[in-house]
């Protein structure tokens, strides 16, 4: 049985009308009818959770296999174990001597810049390999109270923020939360609003990946509200961080099927992007008019509206983004692949996934939606094509 058949079976067993169940999850009766008949897929984690709650079953009962592998399972990255080991060592707390002397501050700062660039270029494996040494070097300064203490705390915040980004992407939500929390402590020690905004965003991302959406929304909205009065000074870093937190909050609202609130937050973010008047990457946010437009397509996808995804995505000019932002550039193609899959335009869906894989192959492997879209295309294909097989193998969906 596919997921739609399971949903229909549980609904009928509990004698819940289609219209009632659809209303409980913020969808239309026609949408639910198409899901139950296998015409549409359900690839959003939030939608599966909402359906399971309404039917009073476990998400795994609807998915049909162990929940840890669907749909948010990610392949393991070997270097994550080294990051985990460092986080669990607590050498500074136990007064153990450092394994190596701290890096000079200029070297530490330069390394944090490079690791953020590597992550945004979607080089996740390379980023993971660098992070254990970077975090050890950053923690070598733990408790430092010298003349350069503020700059050191800022560098530690940026190092742990980069670690949280990668761990969130890898599905390691608990480790992502720990590293984001350490970034927040460094931000407070540095007494920097920019660092606070960056740490808050990473905490919200980690909570969101851990399926604690209410808490994530609270943090993201709170951070945006705190930064908005400060952003009135047109400080580009603060503007970018306020806007980024609003964009994350808009996605969370869309996952809750709150279209009006998601739209309102997108509008506020767009107004902030107009203050910058250009696409930038201040505070490693990639925030600007183009990123807002990309999020409009993503919000439409979260709302389950493939037509709106296609309409919004066609208005995006990804070439306007700063160089190196490969993960942001391919997001449009990920959303279009999902939309075309929902419309059963499988050839077009494979085409967009091919563009993702060509520009940022590690996104294909580690992005939840890319992997689940490929599974859906494989499941209903009468015969697989070399292009689909190659993509699925690259993503680790096929051995």
UniProtKB/TrEMBL annotation:
One of its GO terms (molecular function) is DNA binding. Gene3D superfamilies: lambda repressor-like DNA-binding domains. It holds the Pfam family HTH_31. Residues 7-62 form the HTH cro/C1-type domain. InterPro entries: Cro/C1-type_HTH, Lambda_DNA-bd_dom_sf. SMART domains: HTH_XRE (SM00530). This is Transcriptional regulator with XRE-family HTH domain. It comes from Microlunatus parietis. The lineage of its organism: Bacteria, Bacillati, Actinomycetota, Actinomycetes, Propionibacteriales.
């Amino acid at each position: 049985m596919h997921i739609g058949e399971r949903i229909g079976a549980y609904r009928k067993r509990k004698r819940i009308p289609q219209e009632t169940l659809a209303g409980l999850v913020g969808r239309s009766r026609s949408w639910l009818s198409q899901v139950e008949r296998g015409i549409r897929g359900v690839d959003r984690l939030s939608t599966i959770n909402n359906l399971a709650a309404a039917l009073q079953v476990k998400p795994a009962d609807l998915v049909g296999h162990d929940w840890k592998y669907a749909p948010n399972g990610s392949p393991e990255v070997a270097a994550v174990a080294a990051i985990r080991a460092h986080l669990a060592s607590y050498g500074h707390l136990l007064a153990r001597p450092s394994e190596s002397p701290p890096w000079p501050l200029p070297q530490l700062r330069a390394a944090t810049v490079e690791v953020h660039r590597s992550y945004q270029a979607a080089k996740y494996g390379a980023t993971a390999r660098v992070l254990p040494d970077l975090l050890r070097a950053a923690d070598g300064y733990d408790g430092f109270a010298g003349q350069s203490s503020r700059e050191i705390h800022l560098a530690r915040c940026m190092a742990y923020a980069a670690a949280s980004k990668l761990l969130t992407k890898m599905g390691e939500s608990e480790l992502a939360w720990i590293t984001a929390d350490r970034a927040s402590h460094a931000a407070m020690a540095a007494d920097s609003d920019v660092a606070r905004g960056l740490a808050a965003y990473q905490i919200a991302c980690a909570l969101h990946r851990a399926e604690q959406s209410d808490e994530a929304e609270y943090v993201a909205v709170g951070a945006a509200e705190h930064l908005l009065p400060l952003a009135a000074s047109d400080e580009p870093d603060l503007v970018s961080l306020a806007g980024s937190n609003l964009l994350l909050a808009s996605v969370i609202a869309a996952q809750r099927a709150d279209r009006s609130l998601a739209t309102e937050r997108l509008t506020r973010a767009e107004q902030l992007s107009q203050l910058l008047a250009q696409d930038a990457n201040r505070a490693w946010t990639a925030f600007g008019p183009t990123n807002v437009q990309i999020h409009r397509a993503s919000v439409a996808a979260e709302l389950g509206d493939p037509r709106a995804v296609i309409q919004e995505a066609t208005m995006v000019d990804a070439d306007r983004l700063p160089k190196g932002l490969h993960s942001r550039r391919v997001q449009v193609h990920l959303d279009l692949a999902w939309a075309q899959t929902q419309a059963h335009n499988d050839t077009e869906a494979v085409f967009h996934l091919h563009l993702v894989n060509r520009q940022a192959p590690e996104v294909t492997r580690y992005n939840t939606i890319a992997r689940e879209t490929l599974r859906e295309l494989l499941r209903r294909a009468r015969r697989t094509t070399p292009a689909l097989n190659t993509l699925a193998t690259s993503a680790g969906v096929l051995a």
